Amino acid sequence: MKKIVFIEPKPAGEHIFTQFALPRIGIFILATMMKNRGWDARILVEDITSIDYNELSDADIVGISTITPTAINSYVVANTVRRLGITVIMGGPHVTFLPEEALDYADFVIRGEGETPLMRFIDAWETDGDYGAVPNLSYRNGDGYIHNPMRSFEENLDQLPASDFSLMKDQSRLKVIPVQTSRGCPYDCSFCSVTGMFGKKYRFRSTGHILDELRRYRNAEKMIFFYDDHFAANKKRAKELLRAMIDEGLTFKWSTQVRADIVNDPELLDLMRRSGCHTLFIGFESFNPESLKEMKKRQTVEDITRAVRIIHEHNIHIHGMFVHGFDSDTWDSVKLTVNYAKKMRLTSAQFLILTPFPGSEFYSHVSKRIVYDDWSMYDAHHVVYRPRHFSLRSLQRAQTYSHEKFYSAAEIIRKIAGKNWIAAGIAVYARMINRRWKKNNKGYLRELSRMERHSGKAGSEVLVAEKA
Q: How far is it, in rounded angstroms, from Cα 273 to Cα 279?
């Protein structure tokens, strides 16, 4: 029996969700397809279990899933595996947009959606080794590169199998079960690479196909995370699924990502609550109207405040996601955003640094302003480009300042007094992570200050940052 091992390397640093590992779902679908094909398929998620290269020595192929902040570690893993004489295939958003970089470390790269391309690759692997007809495949040809044409996006998601989590080493440590019900996003925020990877067209699995998978987890006693970029982009379809879950009694706790505009459909919110929705992850991004326009978010500050009020009325938790560093942002807008987030009584929040991910419109827009090309720093917790109204050091300070204020000791006491134990627990953990991050990144912070002194661009923003 041929053996294939899929690996999801971990990023270099910590963040608010480090303790709550949620593997990306792509390698689970691919591994399940390979198992169904008759291969011995295994999965290693480095956030959950360390990589033992002795366990890989008898593998025929190793597939590595890569996003930008894990790229450097992924390349290290790829090099180590290739030294064992094992063929390495890489996939994921980062290598989709930078395949030639990845081919310095891997034998093959599958760009974009990988299910059909991997099956065609294995067809060639098992027969004549002619990869010329494998869609989405990139590989070396002497000193050059071959990039096979991209196939259209997968239209029939029902033909993809439900993930077999038993293929993952230490599966008992998986605290949240990821389930994908759709792909694609009809929106096109300038800083996001999702549409480049999965397209703008919203494609979704049928309700019956999803229910077949959800029935497996009826007694799992774990939370479900619907791994969709926008779970309710098609509200009619979302309501149909939620009604079916309620009718079958599949009302376990679940979470997902949505936009603020879901509150425009009261029936949808009611169905979410009744079907067990615990937390909604919402990219509010900013309370600066100019920044919202700049990122093409298609929402207003009024939309955000109304959404939070209505969602709270349905007793659903909100995890708000915010981004600092747009050209319209200033220290005033940073403070405004943090103050609004506190005022709205969100259960939890992330304040991230605008990051030019390859494949996003923003990456092209600021390419000449990028100051760091170390992909491990592209985790939205490090400044990697020169912002317009901040120094490098002050934008970095804006992020740590935001977490300090949102997760302050006074806020923790308020949450405890209100018996909001979940929010209080997250706040204590986030406050600890924020302090640990600053301690572990002292050298990087000194380097930012040194770079500003050299360039003479520290300016008044540094003084504002130091006072904050």
A: 10
* 145 and 99 Cβ atoms separated by less than 8 Å: yes
Can you read off the two tokens belonging to residue 155?
Answer: 């239209």
φ/ψ of 442, rounded to 5, equals -60, -40
3-state secondary structure the chain: CCEEEEEECCCCCCCCCCCCCCCCCHHHHHHHHHHHCCCEEEEEECCCCCCCHHHHCCCCEEEEECCHHHHHHHHHHHHHHHHCCCEEEEECHHHHHCHHHHCCCCCEEECCCCHHHHHHHHHHHHCCCCCCCCCCEEEEECCEEEECCCCCCCCCHHHCCCCCHHHECCHHHCCEEEECCEECCCCCCCCCCHHHHHCCCCEECCHHHHHHHHHHHCCCCCEEEECCCCCCCCHHHHHHHHHHHHHHCCCCCEEEEECHHHHHCHHHHHHHHHCCEEEEEEEEECCCHHHHHHCCCCCCHHHHHHHHHHHHHCCCEEEEEEEECCCCCCHHHHHHHHHHHHHCCCCEEEEEECCCCCCCHHHHHCHHHECCCCHHHCCCCCCCECCCCCCHHHHHHHHHHHHHHHCCHHHHHHHHHCCCHHHHHHHHHHHHHHHHHHHHCHHHHHHHHHHHHHHCCCHHHHHHHHHC
Which pLDDT value is given to residue 18?
Answer: 65
457 pLDDT above the threshold of 60: no
8 A C-beta contact, residue 229 and residue 202:
no
Q: Are 59 and 5 within 8 A, CB to CB?
A: yes
Asked if 116 and 148 count as a contact pair (C-beta separation under 8 A), the reply is no
The string of pLDDT tens digits covering residues 24-65 is: 999 999 999 999 999 999 999 999 999 999 989 999 999 999
d(CA 243, CA 234): 15
Residue type at 316? I
- Report yes or no on whether pTM surpasses 0.90: yes
Strands 223-226 and 176-179: parallel
pLDDT at 296 over 50: yes
Distance in angstroms (rounded) separating the CA atoms of residues 206 and 237: 9
Mean pLDDT of the chain: 91
- Cα–Cα distance measured from residue 154 to residue 25, given in angstroms and rounded to the nearest whole number: 16
Task: State how far the Cα of 392 lies from the Cα of 385, in Å rounded to an integer.
Answer: 8
CB atoms within 10 A of CB 207: 16
Closest CA to 41 of 166, 159, 128: 166
166 Cβ contact partners less than 8 Å away, ≥ 6 residues apart = none
